[in-house]
Amino acid sequence: HHYGAEKYSQALEEAFDERLGLTATYERSDNGVAEFLAPYFSSGGSGRAGRHGAVVAGCDYERGLADGILARFRVALLGVGFSGGEQEQYEELDSMAGRARSSLINSYGCPPEPFGEFMRCVTALSEGGNEDGRVTRLSRRYLSAFTKRRALLADCTRKLEALRMLKPILAQTERALVFTETIESAERAARTIGQGSVPALAYTSQLDRHERGSILADFRRGKIRVLAAPRVLDEGVDVPEADLGVILAASHSRRQMIQRMGRVIRPNADGRPANFIILYVRGTSEDPGEGAHGAFLEEITGVADDMKVFPEETKARDLLKWYGVRGARQ
Fold first, then answer.
1. How far is residue 113 from each of residues 123, 169, 250, measured CA to CA in Å?
2. Burial of 328 (0-12, 13-18, 19+ CB in 10 A)
3. 249 in Cβ contact with 207 (< 8 Å)
4. Could you tell me if residue 52 is inside a domain?
5. Same domain, 231 and 302
6. What are phi and psi of 202, to 5 degrees?
């Protein structure tokens, strides 16, 4: 799917008559599939129509479970609220981003969908060189508000409080992955979990190759029980098997959510189901009740062993009971 980017698509050589592309997630948040990938793989050399120029249906969750190449899994959705100061800040940033987005679409022609195309347009405008300097300032204002809003959601104080509530669950797992948005939030998550009996470390791009290899080796041996990481673990890294995934910063990308689940739902020797816990801030762009992750959640709803949405008043014992931690009080 990376070859759907304009720059990488230049590597798609037209000289090959027979073409095969393999990916776990044949989709992008922009128009790269329709613009570059689909035309290339549906034609032969010199643009001739290929005899088999079609996407071969891949392995979805239902088939993967039936074929035994994916572990059974359970999903919990846990909503939290903002603190007072965070709520005010979010509303201000959300309003700023919303106004700027409307102007960029209605006055300057940025495409509203798909979101990746909108962001590509805004990013190009933000680089300057426009006849109208107002659009440069407007696009930069949008990107600033969008980035700050995303960081605020990712680093929400009550998400860390919820993570503390999950520590008894993390103590029961063999290995767990915590997905964050930023390096800073990964480090905070690791510190929060590590304040107790559960060894946890942040796995980030700031580590050198040797350090990352050493951490993954310790994770495989069980010396480290929890890895907290931003997007560096989403793909391209051979991560040892984990039986619990916690998402502190839920991605808007269905592809990224699928990749994160793929880190956890590998079959294990004893046949136990994998578990996934998604934290989100209620009433925001992360909230499934507001339409967030619609396509992703729809895809897994029918195949998950259990999919539980916890209400606002959820206590630690409710989560422990759902997970099956021994000693959880009724």
1. 15, 39, 20
2. middle
3. no
4. no
5. yes
6. -85, 135
Clarify whether residues 129 and 173 are in a common domain. no
What tens-digit pLDDT sequence spans the chain (330 residues)?
A: 567 777 777 788 888 877 777 776 666 667 777 777 878 877 654 444 444 455 565 667 777 788 887 888 899 999 999 988 999 999 999 999 999 999 999 999 999 988 888 998 999 999 988 788 899 999 999 999 999 998 899 888 999 999 999 999 999 888 999 988 888 889 999 999 988 789 999 998 888 989 989 999 999 999 999 999 887 665 556 777 788 999 887 666 666 777 777 778 777 777 788 898 999 999 898 888 887 766 677 777 778 888 899 987 788 889 999 998 644 444
Cβ(200)–Cβ(194) below 8 Å: yes
- Say yes or no: 172 and 243 in one domain: yes
Domain that holds residue 316: 61-81+156-321
Structure tokens at 145: 């508000």
Report how far residue 41's alpha carbon sits from residue 322's, in angstroms, rounded to the nearest whole number: 45
Tokens of 73: 């899994």
Specify if 255 maps to a domain.
yes
Q: What CA–CA distance (Å, rounded) separates 217 from 225?
A: 11
Same domain, 149 and 189: no
- Assess whether 168 and 284 both reside in one domain: yes
Q: Are residues 69 and 97 in the same domain?
A: no
What total number of domains does the chain contain? Answer: 3
Q: Is residue 155 within 8 Å of 163, Cβ to Cβ?
A: no
Question: Is 176 found in the same domain as 317?
Answer: yes
* Residue closest to 142 by CA, chosen among 112, 119, 114: 119
- The torsion region of residue 222 among left (phi > 0), alpha (psi -120 to 50) and beta comes to left
- Whether 100 and 138 have beta carbons less than 8 Å apart is answered as yes
Farthest CA pair distance, the chain: 68
